[in-house]
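Page 47, continued from p. 46.
Same chain as before, 279 aa.
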Amino acid sequence: MQPAIQDLVKKVMLDPIKVQIGIQNTTASTVAQKIVYVGREDAKLVTLRQSLREGFQPPMLIFVQSKTRAKELYKELIFDGVNVNVIHGDKSKLERDEIIKQFRMGDIWVLVCTDLMARGLDFKTVNHVVNFDFPTSLVSYIHRVGRTGRAGRSGVATTYFTDDDVPYVKNIANLMKKSGHDVPEWMLHLKSAQNKEWKKVEKLPMKRRSISTAMKDNTDWKSIKRMEKDMRKVKEKWAKHGPGKQDDDEGSIEFGSDGEDIMAEETAKLGKRTHSELD
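Result:
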């Protein structure tokens, strides 16, 4: 139960009695949990793709922080040929019910969803949960991981984190250790975010780059402008030189008869420079 709900209960109820089963704020010991450092935001998609290619045991739930990101990730995975679907608030109740039915029957292997859509749904046979976006609270993490390993079954929960997520890792690592799981010692010594920072990301999740392999979706506008400017220069140089022409300013330069060598060479140079800038 979230702290805000507990405070509300104390205000509206007279001497409420709380019945608790198990240890508070822990996850099931039957779920093998691991936290994976991916560095940059765009590396999460690469890591997920590699994991799917290496093989996994469906059904799998993938959690993201918003319906926009759910749609983006679904488009990338469906392009890869993954047996995947997505559930979010823009779908009608009839559509959501049908997706849930197919997921339970095994017709859908991977389901991309948000915390809000999956909350309260009871999937008894989920084998793997992936926190593609880092959970915004301990309650969110417990809820997500709790979708697998139900009724004594075993399960796997994998959480990705980037450089921006580092301040929030320690709390999750402590929770995992409290639940009886092995955690790398260095994670327990990370600097932890303060309560007000947790409350901030819980109300307004951090801004993340789009989930896309398209360069424009994952490149800042200044780099894009430089690339466009350089490409214009390459085109102008190509138009000026053409097949068999010479540049008086640069001395005697001859180009291949097919006229494409200079364009390919300049484009390759531009690509290498752009790649180094992005790194």
